[in-house]
Amino acid sequence: MKNSSKILFFTFFVLLAFFYSCNQGTTSKKEETILKGSTSIFVDETLTPIMEEQVAVFENEYEAKIKLISKSEAETVNSLINEKGAIAILSRNLTQEELNIFKQKKINPKITPFATDAVAFIANKNSKDSLIALKDVISFMQGKSIANIKGLVFDNLNSSTVRYLKDLAGIQEIPQKGVFSFKNNDEVIRHVYENDGMIGIVGVNWLSQPKPAMQKYVDNVATLSVKGLNGDNYFLPSQNNIAEKKYPLARDLYIINCQGFSGLGMGFASFVGGDVGQRIILKSGLLPIRIPTRKFTIVKSQNDKK
């Protein structure tokens, strides 16, 4: 009889714990709205500086807490696919293969383009060259010897910048000689600062929005003007050159929301794509997907009355 009581009590306890955990899951989802609650967002680490600023302003305006998780592009995409209800920031759209994976999972990703970024080439300030031809970089990536390139320095072998240059060069693997990789963009900038002849490849927002500790390094590297595959002119990755499609290494940025309900993913995407978020993009030196409107107040002077 005592054993029966113990079994009954244990069964009741398990059922109570189960219903409590289910209720907690339902409550947490209810507590998260488009402007309230907490969530995590995976971000391509080449885009971290601009997203940190967006999150800071968003959290200041709303009762929301967003944890940014910076990873390489490959890791960010894997996290988006493997974690249910994930949100990610990428420098490319989803491929058809990736969309098919979500379709099999009965998930319809909400994709919001919000800005245009650029891949920048940097060199030591002592470098004699301030210009670089994209065809030379592509040739070097293909394993050919190029006189004015001692080495290329990337942030991470799984990063979006490596994937971007590999796609341009039409290669599956990077050459073993002359191509170096580190952990992040900051380490690339430091390495170029300390070594003549190296060409660093970074997301341009790491140059326009450096951390205080990185300012001296950014100030002492030169951003190179790039000649595209067509034409003879060289262009810096400036906002104006990106807007006029003159800079050859521009790339669109996307928020990929797979939450499946009206949560912070939807609210944050609307914020970044809205007036305040687009002004942050404009101020950062990147190109917003839409130019924020400017309001002018016309004041009549006394001379106007005459």
From TrEMBL:
The UniProt record lists the keyword Signal: yes
Q: Which UniProt keywords apply?
A: Signal
Highest rank taxon of the organism: Bacteria
InterPro entries in alphabetical order: PBP_domain, Phosphate_ABC_transporter
| Pfam families hit by this protein | PBP_like_2
PBP domain sequence ranges: 38-272
Which range is the signal sequence, renumbered to this chain?
1-23
- Indicate what this protein is called per its UniProt record: Phosphate ABC transporter substrate-binding protein
